[in-house]
Amino acid sequence: MLKRLSKIALVFILSLCLGMNSVAKAANDDSEEAINEKFGLPIVVYGETLTAEQKEEVKKLLNVKDSSMVEEITVTAKDLVRLIDGDPRSRMFSSAKITRKEKGEGLVITQVTPGNITEVTDEMYANALLTAGIEDANVEVASPVKVTGHSALVGIYKAYEVGGEELDKDRMEVANEELGLATKLAEREGMDDEKVSELLTEIKKAIAEQNPATKEDVEKIVEEQLKTLKIELSPEDRQLLIDLFEKMRSLNIDFDKVKKQLNDITKDIRDKMKEVVGDEGFWQSVGDFFKKIFQAIGDFFKGLFD
Length: 306
Description:
Blueprint: H1 2-30, E1 43-47, H2 52-61, E2 71-75, H3 77-84, E3 95-100, E4 107-111, H4 122-132, E5 137-142, H5 152-162, H6 169-188, H7 193-210, H8 215-228, H9 235-250, H10 259-276, H11 280-304
Parallel strand pairs: 1-2, 4-5
Antiparallel strand pairs: 1-3, 3-5
Helix pairs in contact: 3-5, 4-6, 4-10, 6-7, 6-9, 7-8, 7-10, 8-9
């Protein structure tokens, strides 16, 4: 009898814990981050090609529950031309939510729909935004359909423009060129996305440390990093890389100012690479562990009524 009562008490405690966990989760889901009055409302940028139905889907994806708590704008093909000399015939689906942060807090990029952003990774976005001069913000990117993800950059630039911050057009164009080259290297050279981002990040860190004065200095840095990371590129792509960073040098982009963010990108890349090459045996053991737990729970409840 005592054994049976103990089992019933244990079931009650388990149920109580599960109930409390559900209440806590609901409370967390309903809570909203306080608005930073220094920077104003978060800005949500919608691609102009979205249908009304798709726009509502993006709102849900970006957790826009109350439109009065964000500033909503639309990015158009005209903006693409105006900001980065893009193609006026472009279709704009990628959307983003930008919450500006205090200086030194760094960039946090989150792809809410990673399955629909087919070419650009978080680290590629972060690298390009640092090049453009955007250093401290939470940026969430979403698309209801499969897209490469390039146009989201323009939406982010427009959000800063609407927020009263002027970004340098030359830097924005170079950042867009950087993003384009990053995705081309991943496609043409068969490199992992993480490896491409690591290469770009390490070159920027070397530029910050060595402060190259000439194009030859830039070329030397690029060659050193290709050798260090054991990356082989075609002569054409190697030259494109050198030309890109020579443009950055001529614009006097001070990567020393964003060294912390570059180091954060490097850490994120290496963490992801560890996950990709993780021990399959470990994950098998995790699966077996949970299988045993569920089996034990099943046996426990079965025993209550035996």
